[in-house]
Amino acid sequence: MPTDARTNNEVGVSQLEDEGVELRMSADPTQLSIARAVAADIAMRQDFDLDSIEDLKLAVDETCSTLITMAAHKAVLSCRFVVNDDAVHVHAQVSSGSSAPPDRESFGWRVLTALVDSVTTWVDPASTGDGHVVHIDLVKRSAGAVNG
Q: Is residue 126 part of a domain?
Protein backbone atom coordinates (compact mmCIF):
# COMPACT_ATOMS: atom_id res chain seq x y z
CA MET A 1 0.00 0.00 0.00
CA PRO A 2 1.32 3.42 -0.83
CA THR A 3 2.79 5.38 2.07
CA ASP A 4 3.47 8.51 0.06
CA ALA A 5 2.40 11.76 1.69
CA ARG A 6 -0.78 13.36 0.42
CA THR A 7 -0.81 17.10 -0.02
CA ASN A 8 -3.59 19.67 0.16
CA ASN A 9 -5.82 17.16 1.94
CA GLU A 10 -6.10 14.93 -1.14
CA VAL A 11 -8.18 11.79 -0.77
CA GLY A 12 -7.73 8.68 -2.88
CA VAL A 13 -10.37 5.98 -3.24
CA SER A 14 -9.70 2.64 -4.94
CA GLN A 15 -12.01 -0.23 -5.84
CA LEU A 16 -10.17 -3.44 -4.93
CA GLU A 17 -10.30 -6.82 -6.65
CA ASP A 18 -11.97 -8.42 -3.63
CA GLU A 19 -14.90 -6.00 -3.96
CA GLY A 20 -13.45 -3.86 -1.19
CA VAL A 21 -12.84 -0.14 -1.11
CA GLU A 22 -9.62 1.50 0.02
CA LEU A 23 -9.55 5.09 1.20
CA ARG A 24 -6.20 6.91 1.43
CA MET A 25 -5.96 10.37 2.95
CA SER A 26 -3.71 12.64 4.95
CA ALA A 27 -3.55 11.60 8.58
CA ASP A 28 -5.39 14.75 9.59
CA PRO A 29 -8.48 15.09 11.81
CA THR A 30 -10.20 17.21 9.16
CA GLN A 31 -10.48 14.04 7.02
CA LEU A 32 -12.47 12.01 9.59
CA SER A 33 -15.84 12.93 8.10
CA ILE A 34 -14.86 11.24 4.83
CA ALA A 35 -14.02 7.96 6.56
CA ARG A 36 -17.29 8.09 8.55
CA ALA A 37 -19.30 8.74 5.39
CA VAL A 38 -17.73 5.81 3.53
CA ALA A 39 -18.34 3.49 6.50
CA ALA A 40 -21.99 4.58 6.75
CA ASP A 41 -22.56 4.16 3.01
CA ILE A 42 -21.12 0.64 3.00
CA ALA A 43 -23.20 -0.36 6.04
CA MET A 44 -26.38 1.08 4.50
CA ARG A 45 -25.78 -0.82 1.26
CA GLN A 46 -25.51 -4.01 3.33
CA ASP A 47 -28.89 -3.30 4.98
CA PHE A 48 -27.43 -2.82 8.45
CA ASP A 49 -29.99 -1.52 10.94
CA LEU A 50 -29.64 2.10 12.04
CA ASP A 51 -27.89 1.27 15.33
CA SER A 52 -25.32 -0.90 13.56
CA ILE A 53 -24.67 1.83 10.98
CA GLU A 54 -24.08 4.36 13.75
CA ASP A 55 -21.85 1.92 15.65
CA LEU A 56 -19.70 1.34 12.56
CA LYS A 57 -19.41 5.08 11.90
CA LEU A 58 -18.30 5.73 15.48
CA ALA A 59 -15.89 2.79 15.43
CA VAL A 60 -14.26 3.99 12.20
CA ASP A 61 -14.03 7.50 13.66
CA GLU A 62 -12.35 6.18 16.83
CA THR A 63 -10.02 3.93 14.82
CA CYS A 64 -8.92 6.73 12.50
CA SER A 65 -8.62 9.24 15.38
CA THR A 66 -6.41 6.83 17.29
CA LEU A 67 -4.16 6.27 14.28
CA ILE A 68 -3.99 10.00 13.48
CA THR A 69 -2.65 10.70 16.97
CA MET A 70 0.10 8.12 16.36
CA ALA A 71 0.93 9.17 12.79
CA ALA A 72 4.31 10.32 11.60
CA HIS A 73 4.55 13.80 10.08
CA LYS A 74 2.78 13.91 6.67
CA ALA A 75 1.72 10.26 6.96
CA VAL A 76 -1.05 8.74 4.87
CA LEU A 77 -3.92 7.04 6.66
CA SER A 78 -5.25 4.01 4.78
CA CYS A 79 -8.69 2.57 5.51
CA ARG A 80 -9.78 -0.57 3.67
CA PHE A 81 -13.40 -1.76 3.81
CA VAL A 82 -14.36 -5.29 2.74
CA VAL A 83 -17.82 -6.88 3.03
CA ASN A 84 -18.07 -10.62 3.74
CA ASP A 85 -21.45 -12.24 4.43
CA ASP A 86 -23.19 -10.07 7.02
CA ALA A 87 -20.06 -8.24 8.23
CA VAL A 88 -17.97 -5.23 7.32
CA HIS A 89 -14.23 -5.71 7.85
CA VAL A 90 -12.16 -2.55 8.26
CA HIS A 91 -8.38 -2.49 8.12
CA ALA A 92 -6.77 0.85 8.93
CA GLN A 93 -3.08 1.66 9.07
CA VAL A 94 -0.70 4.58 9.33
CA SER A 95 3.07 5.15 9.41
CA SER A 96 4.39 6.02 12.85
CA GLY A 97 7.71 6.90 14.39
CA SER A 98 6.85 4.78 17.41
CA SER A 99 6.78 1.02 17.80
CA ALA A 100 4.10 1.26 20.51
CA PRO A 101 0.60 -0.02 19.70
CA PRO A 102 -2.53 1.92 20.65
CA ASP A 103 -3.24 2.00 24.38
CA ARG A 104 -5.69 -0.85 24.99
CA GLU A 105 -6.51 0.57 28.42
CA SER A 106 -7.67 3.96 27.13
CA PHE A 107 -11.29 5.11 27.20
CA GLY A 108 -11.31 5.34 23.40
CA TRP A 109 -10.17 1.72 23.04
CA ARG A 110 -12.88 0.57 25.45
CA VAL A 111 -15.50 2.45 23.43
CA LEU A 112 -14.14 0.92 20.23
CA THR A 113 -14.34 -2.63 21.59
CA ALA A 114 -17.93 -2.01 22.72
CA LEU A 115 -19.00 -0.83 19.24
CA VAL A 116 -17.72 -3.74 17.13
CA ASP A 117 -17.66 -7.53 17.21
CA SER A 118 -13.88 -7.79 17.13
CA VAL A 119 -10.89 -5.47 17.09
CA THR A 120 -7.17 -6.19 16.89
CA THR A 121 -4.08 -4.04 16.65
CA TRP A 122 -0.42 -4.62 15.92
CA VAL A 123 2.71 -2.79 14.81
CA ASP A 124 5.07 -3.83 12.01
CA PRO A 125 8.40 -2.35 10.95
CA ALA A 126 7.91 -0.09 7.92
CA SER A 127 8.89 -1.66 4.59
CA THR A 128 11.20 1.31 4.00
CA GLY A 129 13.12 0.41 7.16
CA ASP A 130 12.32 3.80 8.67
CA GLY A 131 9.70 3.85 11.41
CA HIS A 132 6.74 1.54 11.90
CA VAL A 133 3.23 0.88 10.62
CA VAL A 134 0.41 0.74 13.16
CA HIS A 135 -2.59 -1.39 12.18
CA ILE A 136 -6.12 -1.64 13.57
CA ASP A 137 -8.57 -4.23 12.22
CA LEU A 138 -12.20 -4.36 13.19
CA VAL A 139 -15.27 -6.36 12.24
CA LYS A 140 -18.86 -5.19 12.58
CA ARG A 141 -21.69 -7.62 11.92
CA SER A 142 -25.21 -6.53 11.16
CA ALA A 143 -27.59 -6.84 14.10
CA GLY A 144 -30.39 -7.14 11.57
CA ALA A 145 -31.64 -5.81 8.28
CA VAL A 146 -33.64 -2.64 8.03
CA ASN A 147 -37.31 -3.43 7.43
CA GLY A 148 -38.28 -1.84 4.23
A: yes
